[in-house]
Design brief:
Length: 33
């Protein structure tokens, strides 16, 4: 079975600050605000 992993990454001012990981099923903060 082929698994598809979906990653959504959001950037602000060329800095990644949040990503969505389908394996976890939730958004994960990358950098502190």
């Amino acid at each position: 079975t082929q698994r598809v992993r979906y990653l959504f990454r959001e950037f602000y001012d060329r800095q990644e600050f949040v990503r969505f990981d389908s394996d976890l099923g939730k958004f994960v903060a990358v950098t502190e605000f």
